[in-house]
Amino acid sequence: MGKPANFAAVDLGAESGRVVLGTIGDSKFELKELNRFPNGPVRTGDELHWDVLRLWAEMKQGVALAGREPGGIQGIGIDTWGVDFGLLGRGDVLLGNPYHYRDARTNGILERAFEIVPKREIFDQTGIQFMQFNTIFQLLAMKLGGSVLLDTAETLLMMPDLFNFWFTGRKCIEFSNATTTQAYNPKTNQWATDLINRLGVPTKIFPEIVASGTVLGPVRKDIAEELAIGNVPLIAPAQHDTGAAVAAVPAERNKGWAFISSGTWSLMGMEVPAPIISDASFKYNFTNEGGVNGTYRFLKNIMGLWLVQECRRTWLRAGQEYSYAQLADMAGAAKPFVAVIDPDDPSFLAPGDMPSRIVAYCQKTGQQAPSTPGEFVRVCLESLAMTYRQTLRRIEECTGRKAEVIHIVGGGTQNKHLSQWAADATGCTVVCGPIEATAAGNIAVQAVATGVFKDIWEARDLIRRSFDVAVYQPVDTGRWEEPYKKFEQLRA
Hints:
Number of strands: 21
Strand content: 15-25%
Helix content: 25-40%
Low-confidence stretches: none
CATH topology of the largest domain: Nucleotidyltransferase, domain 5
Mean pLDDT: 96
Distance between the termini: 54 Å
Shape: globular
CATH class of the largest domain: Alpha Beta
CATH superfamily of the largest domain: ATPase, nucleotide binding domain
CATH architecture of the largest domain: 2-Layer Sandwich
Oligomer: single chain
C-alpha cells in the first residue's frame, strides 16, 4: 500500500458532531478524534432549527487540525443525518436556518399528503418508509403554510451537501441522502418528478444526484488558505450517516447478516442489491435507502436511544444528573419487564418530558408504570430489543434471507445490556463494533474513491482486523416470550 493515507471525516449526529482523522496503512485502520462538539436543536419561538453556522465553524476547525497532522490529508468527507435541508436563493444565499426534523410544522402532514396523492402511490414511486419529517413532507408543509422561502428558493441541498457547497462551490446531492427525501424514484434513478409536481413542490430546486464515492472537486482556494490544508479533494462518501455506518460493518461477504446502526435512532436492516417495493414492505412500512456501490439498505427506522436520552435530559433539568453508564447499570439492576412500550409510538417523537409520557402510555395501555430511573431505562431498552425481534422477522420475510448474525455499530454498542437483550430477544448472535462506524465508513468510502482500497469489501476486511468487537450469544430466550406477546398486541 505504500505510505499511510490520511482522510478527514466530518461526522454530524443528532446529539454531537466530530471530526475524525483516519489513517490507513498496510495492516491497520486507525481513527483519531480531533474535534468533538455538541449538536442539537435550537428553539426560536415555536420553531426548531439547526445552528448551521456554528456547525460550519466547528467542522472547519476540525479539518484545519487534520491538515496539521503528519502527512496532511488526502481527502475530506462529510456525513450527517438525513431528511433535513437548506434552501439557497438568488446569489446562492442561504434562506434561513435549516429546520430540525422534529419541528412541529409537519404534525398531521401525512394525512394532508395522502389526500393529494394516495399513500400506496407515494410508496410505489419512492419505496421509502413514511415518517412525517421526510423531506418531501417538510416541503409540503412549507407549501401549505405559504412559505416565502419556498417561493424564492432556487436550490435545495441536504445538510452535508450544503456544507459541501460551502467547501467547493459545487451544488449536488449524494445518492444515499437523496433517497431519504422520499422524493427520489429508485426505479428510474431520478427525482420523482411526478410526485413532486402533484404535491405542488417546485421541481426546479432539486439539483443533480451523484453517486457515493464521487470526488466533488478540490476545496475552494480561499477555504484551503484559511485552513492551511493545501489542494485537498472533497469526496462524497455515503453522506447519510447510516449509509456510512453500514459501509463499515465488519461483515464477511458470504455470511447472511443484518445490521443495526445504534444511536439516537436504531436503523435495522439488510444490504440488498435492489430496492424491495412490495405489498409486504408497504404493509410493514420499510424503507429502501441508498448505500455504497449502488446497493440499497432495506431497513426500518426505530426510535432508538432517543427515549433514554430524553429521560436523561428531563432528570437533569430536575437536578438529577446521571451518566449514560450509570443509567445502564441502574437498568441492569432493575426489575425486568415492569412494562412494555412501543418505542415508535408518536407520543415519544418530540422533545420533552419523556418519563411522564412513558407513564401516560402505560396508563393508557393498562400497565403498571415504571417508578425509578433504572426501571424507566430498562423498559425502554427491553422494548427496543423486542422491536429488533419483530423487525428482523419482517426483514427476513420481505427479503427471503435469514440472518446468521446481527452486526450492531455506532455509539449504542457501548450499552452492554441492550446488546445482550438484543441477542436474547432475537435469538441471534450479536456482534458489536466498531463504535465509530460512521467515521470509519466515511473514511473507507473516501479511500475506495482514491484507490487506496479496491472496493468496500477490502475496506471491511481491514476494519474487521483493526477494531475490537464484542460478541453476545443469546441466553434465557424463553423469558422473552410472554412480554413479546404483549409487545405484539401493542403494535398490532
